[in-house]
């Protein structure tokens, strides 16, 4: 994946936009800080997401974290493979570990570029 | 007596090691103005012998159900506890342990809880159960919060025939969360499913019923389940587990969450606590369950064993986003119920249930032959039932008490519309002779 | 050693009979309508009494309790549980009381409750106490609900924020959230106390309460407490005391005198009632007089007019009921028995020795472990392993290795503000010999960390199971037994 097409949130979600569609997941940094993911709760199909609201939850043995919607729009696909194999998020967060696809209505205004996100991660790691 | 081991010499040596001259110095960080300048105004300590005599005397001031013939139930039931239960509970490896955070040295508690969870699932017809909650009332409140969370809705429909104290607890718990409670009308001793259907809409998170209900009547659960599910709401049922050897399990009737008070599984009455809240849920809601849960897994050598699991839901990780704040539960009471059920087995539990059913009906029938006593509700009942009297319940109960009988609950206390109605309870503990004695004394003119 | 699940030992048709046969003549018996009847049989085990007794006896042998050995679990106060307490709770005059018996038949029990309330109020410096909450977290819930009811009764509905320090127990924020409050977390200062500047910044017209424990979760007395109370009260908010660490200060200082308005007390910690493998506990709540009207219903008190104890239900400002009936009475009986045996002097001695033991053990460990906060500590303290980077041995490994030496590990990785924390609370009932031996074991473990770290990574070695795969347990939860044929 060319990471230039991808935008990021401060809460460590990524969003990849292709025309009217967008795919959402959590970043490699996020999966690493959580540790072994044991469970994901994803939004229902057809739910109208609003940018910035909590759309799901991801859990490891010792931590739990909300997933924030990086955009406004309707959920058209959820990655059901994650329900049985949440470890995909650890193995391939930008690929098979994707979470939902959304019919886009608008992006969160404060999304970060790849470079900005990299800086954020560097800061947090310190 | 104070259970303190150090000799004077040892204490001196310890202070020297720390590098202070007296233990007073160890409290020097408490600002002087905050120090309590006087001794605590409590009685001086006693020898164990003297203390035991005093406490024994206090206990003797009470008239207990071992010396009275009790027909009092209403959420706390006298059942026979096989003697072996107490002996297992007295194993101090169980009762002096903390929550099983170290699985390597807690397999006893963990496996017992796993067995308990299995038994609760078997009885209720649910897929998963937690390790216990405080009591039946808080278990119902937690279930209501769960239903609201799962549906993201804000109204709970309740049967007015829930235990009134459960209802009050529910109100206290829901208050802070801004969840509204609405009542389903009742008639002829049972909650009306047709009325529930009218009230169900897209705002309703769950329908809460009790079975048998507070009046002892058996509710038909299936129509409520259908109506609730049609509206996208959950059916939550609070049950008496001892009835479940005999009565249809709520899972079979379509319930989504089953809770209840486990005291009837052989726990002592103990003036209302400690009791045992239990909760079972359908698979779909497993990860929304509050409280501790034990799961099976393997260790690094592949050996099977048990651990506390799904802890990410809990307060110590999720903090303000936790579904509940519960930590300590009623583990030892759950162990008690587990041993009780293991000793009784399926046939024993069914026998207890059948004796409660038959004796309750026998007492109801006998009392209904007395002049001035009527049975207001014709529906099937279990263990408990309601009669209406002409005599004021308070006076009647005083009369019974002087005959060594603990009478039923004056329902007017909770239901103004049920003035002069009494809720009676007849478990397997009562013999036919004792029931006949109740009827005889009741029938004697005041 | 391993014990099969009880279900796999079941033999169809085996049973014990505990009841006489039904004595209601057959013609008088009834049958249930079809819709009400259970169709299947629950798969409970079918066994003899001996089968069951052996099974649970063996399970008990896989456990470790205070009666098995030293249990220095920080913030849990695992002191010895005197046996007289158990026997007292089992007396028929207490154990066989129905909660709805007329009060004239339960005067002894109500007197016991009233006297326990009075004693706890005196120890905590409060004016009134309820015994209703079933555990510490339940006490917190009750306390915060009362605080919210108090603010609401004054028409002050803006107060929706509860402040907690970052070192607080997870229950504090979870409780506040259950009451519909927003959480504001404030940082600790370098000494582990409250950062006063941070507190001043957040305390305001929207603050409902500050929740605090003193001594803190680091085992240190918060000596700025008077100033904290002033800031909070000036903001119009109330001060809540989490009584988890009460065992350090009985007879020395009282939360009420420090400015706290609401206190919860854990009878299963400070007052020697057993933990039961996770409960039942009891979490009484004490309040200052102005909060008394908000106590949960009913209130146990002596009615002068009638010359007897009553259960008072007529309380219009009460937050309502927090559970059915009157609390975990059986646990209260145990605590009352402990109070009776100990007396005021005994309780003060208990706190004194608890603090002595903690400081002594901390001194013994200072050479081989880091002590991030210098003493004197109160009833508990924190150490962390040295040279973690070089040895690769973490707190978890030290804790697990302690099991091999026959000890229950301390609380680990808490509080969150100290990395790799081992939080040790020896309690007053442990002897010098036990503390010496425990310190020797920990010192030996610190040498092992250098010489043979693998030994620690694989610990414990002699238990029926070693470290469990918690990830697998949470990914594919197996929460109940099912027969193989399914």
Total helical elements of chain A? 4
Overall mean confidence score, pLDDT of chain A: 90
The low-pLDDT segments of chain A are none
Give the name of the CATH architecture of chain A.
Beta Barrel
Distance, first to last CA of chain A = 27 Å
The rounded distance between the terminal residues' Cα atoms of chain B is 53 Å
Main β-sheet of chain A: number of strands, strand sense, barrel status?
Answer: 6 strands, antiparallel
Characterize the overall form of chain A.
globular
Radius of gyration of chain B: 25 Å
User: Rounded to an integer, what's the Rg of chain A over CA atoms?
Assistant: 13 Å
Counting helices, strands and paired strands, the structural category of chain B is alpha/beta
CATH topology assignment of chain A: OB fold (Dihydrolipoamide Acetyltransferase, E2P)
**Approximately what portion of the residues of chain A adopt beta-strand conformation?**
35-45%
Write the CATH architecture name of the largest domain in chain B.
3-Layer(aba) Sandwich
What attributes does this structure have?
heterotrimer, B: 446 residues, alpha/beta, Aspartate Aminotransferase, domain 1, Aspartate Aminotransferase, domain 2, seven-stranded mixed beta sheet, three-stranded antiparallel beta sheet, 14 helices, globular, C: 486 residues, four-stranded antiparallel beta sheet, 16 helices, 36% helix
Word description of this protein:
The complex is a heterotrimer of chains A (126), B (446) and C (486). In chain A, strand 6 and strand 7 (64-68) form a beta hairpin. By secondary structure, chain A is α+β, with helices and mostly antiparallel strands. Helices cover 21% and strands 40% of the residues of chain A. Chain A has a single domain, classed as OB fold (Dihydrolipoamide Acetyltransferase, E2P) (Beta Barrel), CATH 2.40.50. Chain A is globular and about 35 Å long. In chain A, the strands form two sheets. Chain A has a six-stranded antiparallel sheet. Chain A has a three-stranded antiparallel sheet with strand order 4-6-7, with no helix packed on it. The model of chain A has no long low-confidence stretch (mean pLDDT 90). In chain B, 37% of the residues lie in helices and 14% in strands. In chain B, helix 3 (83-89) runs antiparallel to helix 12, helix 8 (193-199) runs parallel beside helix 9 and helix 12 (331-368) packs across helix 14. Chain B has two domains: 69-80 and 346-443, Alpha-Beta Complex (Aspartate Aminotransferase, domain 1), CATH 3.90.1150; 83-338, Aspartate Aminotransferase, domain 2, CATH 3.40.640. By secondary structure, chain B is of the alpha/beta class. Chain B has helices at residues 8-18, 48-60, 83-89, 92-95, 107-124, 136-151, 164-175, 193-199, 222-230, 250-253, 315-318, 331-368, 393-402, 432-443; strands at 69-70, 128-129, 155-158, 180-183, 186-187, 190-191, 204-211, 234-239, 257-261, 277-281, 294-298, 304-308, 384-388, 405-406, 409-410, 421-425. Chain B has 14 helices and 16 strands. In chain B, the strands form five sheets. A seven-stranded mixed sheet of chain B has the order 2-10-9-8-7-3-4, with helices on both faces. Chain B has a three-stranded antiparallel sheet with strand order 13-16-15, covered by helices on one side. A two-stranded parallel ribbon of chain B has the order 1-14. Chain C has 16 helices and 13 strands. Chain C is α/β, with parallel strands linked by helices and 486 residues long. In chain C, helix 4 (107-124) runs parallel beside helix 11 (329-365), helix 5 packs across helix 6 (171-178) and helix 11 crosses helix 14. The mean pLDDT of chain C is 95. Helices cover 36% and strands 11% of the residues of chain C. In chain C, the strands form three sheets. In chain C, strands 1-7-6-5-4-2-3 form a seven-stranded mixed sheet, with helices on both faces. Chains in contact: A-B, A-C, B-C.
């Amino acid at each position: 994946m060319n990471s230039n097409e991808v935008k990021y949130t401060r809460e460590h979600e990524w969003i990849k936009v292709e025309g009217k569609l967008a795919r959402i997941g959590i970043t490699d940094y996020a999966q690493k800080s959580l540790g072994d993911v044991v469970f994901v709760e994803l939004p229902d199909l057809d739910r109208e997401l609003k940018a910035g609201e909590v759309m799901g939850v991801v859990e490891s043995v010792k931590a739990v974290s909300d997933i924030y919607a990086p955009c406004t729009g309707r959920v058209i696909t959820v990655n059901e493979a994650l329900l049985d194999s949440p470890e995909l998020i650890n193995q391939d967060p930008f690929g098979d570990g994707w979470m939902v696809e959304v019919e886009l209505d608008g992006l969160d205004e404060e999304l970060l570029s790849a470079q900005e996100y990299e800086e954020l991660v560097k800061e947090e790691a310190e | 007596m104070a259970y303190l081991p150090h000799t004077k010499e040892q204490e001196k040596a310890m202070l020297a090691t720390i590098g202070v001259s007296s233990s007073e110095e160890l409290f020097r960080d408490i600002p002087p103005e905050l120090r309590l300048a006087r001794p605590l105004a409590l009685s001086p300590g006693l020898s164990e012998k003297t203390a035991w005599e005093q406490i024994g005397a206090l206990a003797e001031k009470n008239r207990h159900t071992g010396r009275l013939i009790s027909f009092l139930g209403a959420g706390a039931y006298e059942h026979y506890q096989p003697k072996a239960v107490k002996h297992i509970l007295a194993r101090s490896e169980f009762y002096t342990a903390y929550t099983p955070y170290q699985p390597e040295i807690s397999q006893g508690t963990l496996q017992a809880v796993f067995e308990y969870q299995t038994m609760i699932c078997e009885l209720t017809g649910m897929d998963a159960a937690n390790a216990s909650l405080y009591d039946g009332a808080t278990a119902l409140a937690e279930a209501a919060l769960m239903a609201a969370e799962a549906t993201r809705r804000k109204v709970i429909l309740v049967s007015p025939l829930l235990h009134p104290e459960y209802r009050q607890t529910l109100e206290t718990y829901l208050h802070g969360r801004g969840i509204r409670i609405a009542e389903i009308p009742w008639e002829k001793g049972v909650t009306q499913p047709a009325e529930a259907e009218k009230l169900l809409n897209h705002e309703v998170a769950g329908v809460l019923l009790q079975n048998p209900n507070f009046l002892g009547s058996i509710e038909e659960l299936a129509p409520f389940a259908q109506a609730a599910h049609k509206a996208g709401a959950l059916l939550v049922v609070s049950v008496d587990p001892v009835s479940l050897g005999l009565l249809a399990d709520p899972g079979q009737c379509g319930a989504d969450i089953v809770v209840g008070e486990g005291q009837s599984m052989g726990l002592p009455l103990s003036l209302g606590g400690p009791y045992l809240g239990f909760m079972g849920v359908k698979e779909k809601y497993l990860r929304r369950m509050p409280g501790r849960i034990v799961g099976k897994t393997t260790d690094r050598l592949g050996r099977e064993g048990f651990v506390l699991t799904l802890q990410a839901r809990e307060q110590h990780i999720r903090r303000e986003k936790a579904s509940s704040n519960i930590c300590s539960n009623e583990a030892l009471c759950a162990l008690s119920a587990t041993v009780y059920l293991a000793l009784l087995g399926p046939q024993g539990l069914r026998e207890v249930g059948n004796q409660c059913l038959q004796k309750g009906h026998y007492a109801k029938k006998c009392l209904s032959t007395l002049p001035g006593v009527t049975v207001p509700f014709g529906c099937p009942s279990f263990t408990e039932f309601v009669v209406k009297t002409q005599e004021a319940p308070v006076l009647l109960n005083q009369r019974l008490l002087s005959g060594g009988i603990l009478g039923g609950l004056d329902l007017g206390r909770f239901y103004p519309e049920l003035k002069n109605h009494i809720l009676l309870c007849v478990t397997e503990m009562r013999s036919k002779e004792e029931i006949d004695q109740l009827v005889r004394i009741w029938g004697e003119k005041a | 050693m391993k014990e099969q699940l009880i279900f796999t030992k079941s033999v169809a048709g085996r049973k014990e009979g505990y009841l006489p046969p039904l004595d209601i003549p057959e013609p008088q018996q009834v049958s249930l309508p079809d819709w009400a009847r259970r169709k299947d049989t629950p798969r409970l085990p079918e066994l003899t009494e001996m089968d069951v007794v052996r099974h649970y006896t063996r399970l008990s042998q896989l456990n470790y309790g205070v009666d098995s050995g030293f249990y220095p679990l920080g913030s849990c106060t695992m002191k010895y549980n005197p046996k007289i307490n158990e026997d007292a709770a089992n007396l028929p005059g207490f154990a066989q009381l129905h909660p709805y018996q007329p009060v004239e038949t339960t005067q002894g029990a109500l007197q016991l409750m009233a006297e326990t309330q009075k004693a706890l109020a005196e120890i905590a410096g409060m004016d009134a106490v309820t015994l209703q909450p079933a555990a510490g977290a339940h006490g917190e819930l009750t306390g915060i609900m009362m605080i919210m009811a108090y603010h609401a009764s004054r028409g002050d509905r803006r107060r929706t924020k509860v402040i907690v320090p970052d070192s607080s127990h997870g229950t504090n924020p979870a409780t506040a959230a259950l009451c519909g409050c927003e959480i504001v977390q404030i940082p600790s200062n370098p000494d582990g106390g409250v950062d006063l500047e941070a507190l001043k910044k957040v305390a305001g017209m929207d603050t409902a309460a500050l929740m605090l424990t003193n001594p803190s979760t680091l085992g240190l007395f918060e000596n700025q407490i008077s100033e904290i109370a002033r800031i909070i009260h000036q903001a119009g908010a109330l001060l809540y005391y989490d009584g988890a660490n009460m065992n350090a200060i009985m007879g020395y200082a009282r939360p009420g005198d420090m400015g706290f308005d609401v206190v919860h007390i854990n009878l299963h910690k400070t007052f020697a009632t057993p933990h039961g493998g996770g409960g039942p506990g009891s979490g009484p709540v004490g309040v200052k007089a102005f909060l008394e009207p908000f106590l949960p219903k009913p209130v146990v008190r002596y009615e002068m007019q009638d010359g007897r104890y009553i259960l008072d239900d007529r309380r219009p400002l009460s937050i309502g009921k927090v559970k059915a009936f009157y609390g975990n009475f059986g646990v209260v009986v145990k605590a009352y028995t402990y109070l009776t045996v100990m007396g005021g002097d005994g309780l003060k001695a208990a706190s004194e020795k608890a603090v002595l033991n903690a400081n002594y053990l901390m001194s013994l460990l200072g050479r081989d472990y880091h002590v991030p906060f210098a003493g004197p500590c109160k009833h508990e303290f924190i150490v962390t392993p040295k040279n973690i980077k070089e040895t690769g041995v973490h707190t978890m490994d030290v804790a697990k290795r302690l099991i091999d030496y026959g000890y229950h590990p301390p609380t680990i990785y808490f509080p969150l503000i100290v990395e790799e924390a081992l939080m040790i609370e020896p309690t007053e009932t442990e002897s010098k010999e036990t503390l010496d031996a425990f310190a020797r074991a920990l010192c030996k473990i610190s040498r092992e960390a250098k010489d043979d770290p693998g030994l620690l990574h694989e610990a414990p070695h002699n238990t029926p199971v070693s470290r469990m795969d918690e990830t697998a347990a949470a990914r594919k939860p197996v929460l109940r037994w099912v027969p193989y044929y399914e």
